[in-house]
Design goal:
2 domains, alpha/beta, 10 helices, five-stranded mixed β-sheet, about 230 residues, Nucleotidyltransferase, domain 5, about 15% strand
Amino acid sequence: RKVGPHELALLLGIARSTIYAILRRAELNRLGALVAKVRVVRYEWPAPGDLVHLDIKRFGRIPEDGGWRNLGRAVANRIKRNAGYEYCHVAVDDHSRLPDAILLPDQRGSSAVAALEQVWGRYLHDGVRIRRILTDNGSCYRSLDFRAACDRLGIEHWRTKPYTPRTNGKAERFIKTLQERWAYARLYRSSTERAAALPDFLSEYRHRRSPTLDGHTPLCRFFGVNNLSGNHS
């Protein structure tokens, strides 16, 4: 257990200042120094489709007459107290960081299957087969429907260790960008308007050069070329 200089002084019968000086020389004068730091292992699979990270982010629905960001919380609450939620199912290719984002009404197993099938179909259209996926331990990913879909599509399903979201960090990081540059980037008057802005955000992200990709874009990395026309979105 963690014990500071005050308690050590009582236990050992040594002056507190002496114990503190010893701890400081050993760089153990802060209790945080006793916490074992988890080393983050960074990795990248060698080819597109080798591993695809999946995750889900919930967003509150925006009523057609505007939400609290437009009208103010008090006014919005009087108009409609609970507009519900919509769920953005995201997929990020480990090798290229190429993202997909699909808005669905819930996060049930059937919706997770629908999102997986849509992403799988797009990859297949581009000549890439998804070999593995990585998800958290959400109920939709543990459902029998999702397991059956993975078996049918020939996809190996990996799940993160409980309470370790950093294991799925590429999806987590993309979700942060999704929030900053799409969901909360400007005021939307409705969920319909927000959804209509999603394809443009995805296209811009896929064509943006990234320092983590040696200056290439996710699209270029996905297709293995140094330059790619703007026809792909």
